[in-house]
Design goal:
The complex is a heterotrimer of chains A (100), B (214) and C (550). With 214 residues, chain B is mostly helical. Chain B has a single domain, classed as Four Helix Bundle (Hemerythrin (Met), subunit A). Chain B has six helices and two strands, in the order H-H-H-H-E-E-H-H. In chain C, strands 1-2 form a two-stranded antiparallel ribbon. Chain C is globular. The chains are: A mainly alpha (100), B mainly alpha (214), C mainly alpha (550). Chains in contact: A-B, A-C, B-C.
């Protein structure tokens, strides 16, 4: 016979789902606000990052004690900082770009 | 497939299951670098041609994109609830939730296909069939290039996920999963939620542009 | 009653002989051999291309190859050697065979993924052969934009597809290695009891996982650009060609560390065994491997100094390129310290290892010359660069690969190779290599550009010297093919530990049984526990190994 454990509470998942949808709504709303070209990407990517964090922590279960999974989960995002950052040094200080 | 047999290099099935999850997290890290490289090149051009990207972004279909995001968010919920059902030995709920996940994914693809048809009708296909809207120049085609590449690659990843979830559904209907053996559900669930996550970032790149005043 | 002749113990080789037992195997040892066969094939294809290049360059008016064809030949040489030989060489053959043995496991974490990795590699290899067969392309292995998208005459997309699929093979193998090292180490095998070869393969795998996906995306963009002419990297359409270079080199510089880190791991194993000494500064060696892997991601702009990046970023990348040399230098110092006053036996593996240390040092020092901004203005895209990276890739990695192949040959095949022939081949390799590539430093300094089918007539002497050296090198590389194959049929049977070396792989039979160890090992000792007085090694079970075991 299979072991029957009581199912874990469904509440957190449903709340997470609702918050994700709310954040989607927020993102759409923000698209129509005149927040300027500097803040726009910050707001929208910030919302995307928050949604990602909710999915990673709640749905993909990166909870509890810090573990090796956390390291690998963060590794890609962390490493992108080097691609973005070091290439940006060139783009920020180069005079010939953009070309048109 | 998905038999749960203990392989000889593992001491017990808990170690085997946990190692499989770690493997999926490592794979996810490589996918973050893959899509991250694409978003990086997009951001370079967005900063270089802000006005052109705003004009191009205005032509995207934010309603369809939002509907799709809602579908994926819901599918992440059904997937994690499916894993929950397996752990609680609720076999019927497991099969239904897996089927729902696949169905939501297929619906996403359907909406995406419809959106592509709308993009074609609006002459937004770079080089092949592109009509410059007022004020647009060549860099808008770079935006649309990015749009088709990013959403196309995402759709490919999602399709692979749908196939995997359908395979899980069939095996679940055969009673393959139990509280003792749910490793494939966990691992594919991770992949599924990651494909959902990619869409959050693609949405931020594609849809919000050009809808507000400066 | 027992038979008169000694029974051959059941091993991973003898337990099944059918073709399908090989093509559908899940045994990491058999998969290693499958990879070995594949990469040896590509080594000789890439080598054939090199022979054509050196033959063409014997004479500045050489007419062996038309200019167009010459461009395709050096492109083929680069693509085949980088992706179909060097990158898989040590990891997919020696790494696959030895990692589970050295950590005390029965197999890798995901055996089916391991087999799939070989299928992916073979599929990408078939694409590469198809690409060569239909005429190749002329972009160089670096696919520079906008030439590769808009102007190249050749099959750029076929090349990109072959490399793209190859990348998945790399990622699959690396994923397996990383997860296995974390989760399948035997009881008592802590991180700082691991052999340095395992550390090196682990560091390599981290680099493979983080860098290769960026290459995949870059090549996908090149293919899309070429197919649809969209302007991602085309300045006429608003694109930036340097964006391609940033993304390409973000992968391709770490790629050279993918190629050299495993070699460093092999050299540590060889030096400690044949000097009968623990490697000097074991923890420093571990940290150096990890440092090289990480800092190697911050230097890619040094390939772009003359391409038009800003001076600010050039200065930054130059500085980082100097810094990355430090951990490499630490490794060279530590190998030297290991050798100092040691009782060295000059078996073939040791000869290859010594060759590595010397040639890698020269290669590394010339890298610093190229990292110097002012010098690079003159030396970029000359034969100085070619000499620099061949010293590391060929003088370094290929030497270490051959050294490791010889060292672990008894373990893999259960046979001894003929030692004198192997020593001749090792020395011939060293001589041939130096004759081939030392003149190329001079040629670069004198201004001979790379990727040209001709050169100024007064440079001919050095070119002839280089080509002559290449012919010696070719013989040196063919020799092992002959005597190693011979040893499979006529070599003496090897015992479990013919070198008297430390490491779990030597604690099981040669060749090992399919499940690697009869009982899961329990590890209680540090690595490289050679007795400092006489170089002997006593295992934790009390077995004593001297200079050599019967």
């Amino acid at each position: 016979m299979s072991a029957r454990r009581p199912p874990e509470p469904i509440g957190p998942y449903v709340i997470g789902w609702a918050v994700l949808l709310l954040l989607l709504g927020l993102s759409v709303l923000a698209a129509y606000q005149p927040i300027g070209p500097v803040f726009q990407p910050i707001v929208h990517f910030g919302i995307a990052a928050t949604q990602a964090a909710i999915v990673f922590i709640l749905f993909m279960k990166l909870r509890g004690r810090p573990s090796l999974k956390w390291v690998f989960a963060a590794a890609g995002f962390f490493w992108l900082i080097f691609l973005f950052g070091l290439a940006t040094v060139d783009y920020a200080t180069r005079s010939g770009f953009p070309l048109q | 497939m998905f038999s749960g047999r203990l392989q000889e290099q593992y001491t017990d099935s808990a170690q085997q299951a946990e190692t499989a999850q770690l493997g999926m997290w490592v794979f996810i890290a490589t996918e973050v670098m893959f899509f991250g490289a694409l978003i990086f090149s997009y951001m370079i051009y967005r900063v270089a041609y802000p006005e052109q990207f705003r004009l191009a972004g205005h032509e995207t279909f934010i309603l369809l994109g939002s509907v799709n995001q809602a579908l994926l968010i819901t599918s992440s919920l059904t997937m994690v609830l499916a894993v929950r059902a397996a752990k609680a030995d609720q076999q019927r709920a497991l099969v239904l939730l897996l089927a729902a996940t696949a169905a939501l994914g297929l619906t996403f693809l359907g909406v995406k296909g419809y959106e592509y048809a709308q993009d074609v009708a609006a002459h937004s296909v770079p080089v092949a069939d592109y009509i410059f809207k007022p004020g647009e120049h060549r860099p808008t085609e770079i935006f649309w290039c990015f749009y088709f590449i990013a959403t196309g690659l995402h759709a490919i990843h999602l399709s692979i996920g749908i196939i995997l979830v359908l395979m899980l559904t069939v095996r679940a209907a055969q009673g393959a999963f139990s509280p003792e053996y749910d490793a494939p559900l966990e691992v594919i669930g991770l992949y599924w939620s990651f494909v959902d996550t990619v869409w959050f970032f693609l949405f931020a790149c594609i849809y919000p542009l050009g809808r507000a005043g400066p | 009653m027992s038979a008169v002749t000694a029974e051959v113990p059941l091993s991973y080789l003898s337990e099944a002989h059918t073709l399908s037992s090989w093509l559908f195997t899940r045994d990491h040892k058999r998969i290693a051999i499958l990879f070995f066969i594949s990469i040896t094939f590509f080594f000789f294809i890439g080598g054939f291309a090199a022979a054509l290049i050196r033959l063409q360059l014997l004479n500045p008016a050489g007419t062996l190859l038309q200019p167009e064809v010459y461009n395709r030949v050096f492109t083929m040489h680069g693509i085949v050697m980088v992706w179909f030989f060097l990158i898989p060489s040590i990891p997919a053959t020696l790494g696959n065979f030895l990692l589970p043995l050295q950590i005390g496991a029965r197999d890798l974490a995901f055996p089916r993924l391991n087999l799939f990795s070989w299928y992916l590699f073979t599929f990408s290899g078939l694409w590469a052969i198809y690409f060569i067969f239909i005429g190749g392309d002329d972009t160089g292995w670096t696919f520079y934009e906008p030439y590769s998208s808009n102007f190249a005459n050749g099959h750029v997309i076929a090349a990109a597809v072959a490399v793209f699929i190859n990348g998945f093979s790399t990622i699959a193998t690396a994923l397996n290695f990383v997860v296995s090292t974390h989760r399948l180490r035997a009881p008592g095998m802590t991180w700082f009891r691991l052999p340095l070869f395992v550390w090196a393969i682990y560091a390599t795998s981290i680099v493979m996982l983080l860098a290769t996906p960026v290459l995949a995306m870059t090549l996908a963009l090149v293919a899309i650009e070429r197919l649809w002419g969209v302007g991602i990297f085309n300045p006429a359409l608003g694109g930036d060609p340097l964006l391609f270079q940033h993304m390409f080199w973000f992968y391709s510089h770490p790629a050279v560390y993918i190629m050299v880190l495993p070699a460093m791991g092999v050299v540590s194993e060889l030096v400690s065994c044949f000097a009968r000494r623990p490697v000097f500064g074991y923890k420093g060696m571990c940290y150096a491997l990890i440092s090289i892997a990480i800092i190697g991601f911050f230097v890619w702009g040094h390939h772009m100094f003359t391409a038009g990046i800003s001076l600010t970023s050039a200065v930054f990348f130059s500085l980082m390129s100097f810094i990355v040399a430090v951990p490499s230098a630490i490794k060279v110092f530590n190998w030297t310290a290991t050798l100092h006053n040691a009782r060295i036996s000059f078996d073939a593996p040791m000869l290859y290892a010594l060759g590595f240390v010397g040639l890698f040092t020269i290669g590394g020092l010339t890298g610093l010359v190229l990292a110097t901004l002012s010098a690079d203005i003159h030396l970029q895209d000359t034969y100085f660069v070619i000499a620099h990276f061949h010293f590391i890739m060929v003088g370094g990695t290929v030497s270490a690969y051959f050294g490791g192949l010889h060292y672990w040959w008894p373990k893999i095949t259960g046979k001894r190779y003929p030692e004198m022939w192997a020593r001749y081949a090792a020395i011939l390799t060293f001589v041939g290599f130096n004759f081939t590539f030392l003149p190329q430093f001079i040629l670069g300094y004198l201004g001979m550009p790379r990727r040209y089918y001709t050169y100024a007539p007064d440079l001919q002497t050095w070119n002839v010297l280089s080509s002559a050296g290449a012919s010696i090198l070719a013989v040196a590389y063919v020799l092992p093919l002959i005597y190693l194959t011979w040893s499979l049929f006529h070599g003496k049977r090897a015992g479990a530990n013919p070198w008297g070396a430390t490491g779990l792989e030597w604690r099981t039979s040669s060749p090992p049984p399919k499940q690697n160890f009869p009982r899961t090992p329990l590890v209680t000792e540090k690595p490289y526990r050679y007795d400092p007085r006489d170089g002997s090694y006593i295992t934790q079970d009390g077995l004593r190994f001297g200079e050599a075991d019967v």
